[in-house]
Amino acid sequence: MNLGRITGQVRIVGAGLLGASIGLGLRAKGVDVIVHDASRSTVNLAIDYGAGRAPLDDDTPTLVIVAVPPDVTAEVVARELAAWPRATVADVASVKVGVLDELIAAGVDLDRYVGSHPLAGRERGGASAARADLFIGRPWVVGRGEPFRRRAVEDVVIELGAIPVAMSAAEHDNAVALISHVPQVVASLLAHRLAGASDAAVALAGQGLRDTTRIASSAPELWVQILGANSGPVAQILRELQAELGVAIDALETPDAPGARRAIAELLAGGNTGVARIPGKHGTSRHFSQLVVMVDDKPGELARLLTEIGEAQVNMEDLRLEHSPGAQFGLAEISVLPEKEALLISELEARGWKIAETFA
Amino acid sequence: MNLGRITGQVRIVGAGLLGASIGLGLRAKGVDVIVHDASRSTVNLAIDYGAGRAPLDDDTPTLVIVAVPPDVTAEVVARELAAWPRATVADVASVKVGVLDELIAAGVDLDRYVGSHPLAGRERGGASAARADLFIGRPWVVGRGEPFRRRAVEDVVIELGAIPVAMSAAEHDNAVALISHVPQVVASLLAHRLAGASDAAVALAGQGLRDTTRIASSAPELWVQILGANSGPVAQILRELQAELGVAIDALETPDAPGARRAIAELLAGGNTGVARIPGKHGTSRHFSQLVVMVDDKPGELARLLTEIGEAQVNMEDLRLEHSPGAQFGLAEISVLPEKEALLISELEARGWKIAETFA
């Protein structure tokens, strides 16, 4: 891993979630960060919180990071390339082909341009959610460019704790269409079905509905731009989904027809296959065992459980809490290496913890 | 809340996830539970784990709970109604109209039948996931029936910690189509798009993709039955979704056409509206504040954090962990009452915890 030190000033244009987070992260590493935004109040807020300093007349940034919405990214990149004739100018827009095409069409010399995109962020966007550690462990795609200019961008990526991934603009856009943009459209379509539902129906909602619709709370203004900029790849994947949806509906409308049950089974098996492609939470396909421990809803109980897991010399790989509205306790789902499960169960039971009843 | 004591024997037919969990829960309340299953080894396992006892020749159950797959539920209900001429016979199948229609078509006297359905369970089904507390705080729909027989079923629901909800069979099936069955189909369709993806593309996966496809790991065998039994309501909702998907694809294929951007914005806004209908995790629309604390990946650190939150006299309403593959620490997202947020931040920072940088 190259822990190259970033020399020179880094100028960030756009103090929203990404720009401000980049600023916070780089300042924490001692970099001289300049923050600019079209909105004076936005830049003042970013500066107040430590994302960088205001621009000065004698600034000489070696790297400019353009973190503005996709619709205006190419325009701002072009402007910054012209304003700083020796600087590398990178963007972080979530679509890459559109930005590149706009720049090429405008006849901009792209020698000093590097397209990039950090795969980070949360549904709650905007500057109020900015964090220095937003990028840690996340992939950050770095696109075409002069090798030493790409290296300058990769240095920033690594300083922010992210993992540089090289991809062409087209490969990138197809990939994010699949793993981000299409899921957004699908979640929104699914969630919209609830709009006219009775209170009684939505009161039956469980974790499955919550999970499949969580990202439907995304902000329309940003996503209209993202989907508009990546419309080709997104539409292509949605067409494939549309075709399979049609097959599913036909089977459901004539469930006793020959082959109908099989079509539904194949739909579900196809989902099994696809979801298994997603890397495990720890970045591998490793599977952990889970045990569910009942935790009284008293102060300190969960802390005691975690302490005793540590005393049992078992590493807790993951923890998920389930609450039951109105219950006097919660359920802690502990993930451990499979070979440690039996040990942990016996250690915890010996200390009086109630492991939820399970069969072998 | 009626904490009516269950008198008499309860016979459970079907020792899978639901049946075994009901047995475990009722045994924990001192009920004499009889367990029957077509598979001798399944029933022996259930009995070994404490879900009940084996049937005896002189059994006189007052309540029979049929917990077999949807395809055979009506047949087993009819058999049990005939075998126990005074018992109330309830089922717990996840579709109600189909079961009722089958019973009516078979000319079965339904005076002693009560349809019901607990909205509980996890993707990992089967007896190995049975838990006495599976139903706590969950809604449990109780359908038509003689009032005192409905009351007998509601007594069980309440003893198991669940919340009885009265609904007709048709209202139930429409509701579960919307909040459970359609999401299952959609998650499977979406996940299937990943089957042929490159490793590089899926390596970019984030929480959004994981959430929208989690339930795509559901078991096909069970879901073919569920979807087959509720195919009408599911198909109807999918038709509505299909229509809106078509509008979205058209807009994306001609993103610069008049009205295309607006159509995409309306899709996203519709998703916002729908997802806001889902009750909050604690059963209300209450919102909590979140703060994100960095937790070194050393043993005992998370336990220490929870202990110190308790010492700060702040109740932790929820906890979510985020891991970063390859990072030396994780992020703990703590939910607290908004009025406690500032206090907790200052208390934790005074104890050396690093709160992720945020804007107000």
UniProtKB/TrEMBL annotation, chains A, B:
Alphabetized Pfam families for the sequence: PDH_C, PDH_N
Pathway listed: Amino-acid biosynthesis; L-tyrosine biosynthesis; (4-hydroxyphenyl)pyruvate from prephenate (NAD(+) route): step 1/1
Entry's family note: Belongs to the prephenate/arogenate dehydrogenase family.
Catalytic activity from the UniProt record: prephenate + NAD(+) = 3-(4-hydroxyphenyl)pyruvate + CO2 + NADH
This protein's name: Prephenate dehydrogenase
Keyword Amino-acid biosynthesis attached: yes
UniProt-listed InterPro entries: 6-PGluconate_DH-like_C_sf, ACT-like_dom_sf, ACT_dom, NAD(P)-bd_dom_sf, PDH_C, PDH_N, Preph/Arog_dehydrog, Prephen_DH
Catalytic EC class: oxidoreductase
GO biological processes: tyrosine biosynthetic process
Keywords on record: Amino-acid biosynthesis, Aromatic amino acid biosynthesis, NAD, Oxidoreductase, Tyrosine biosynthesis
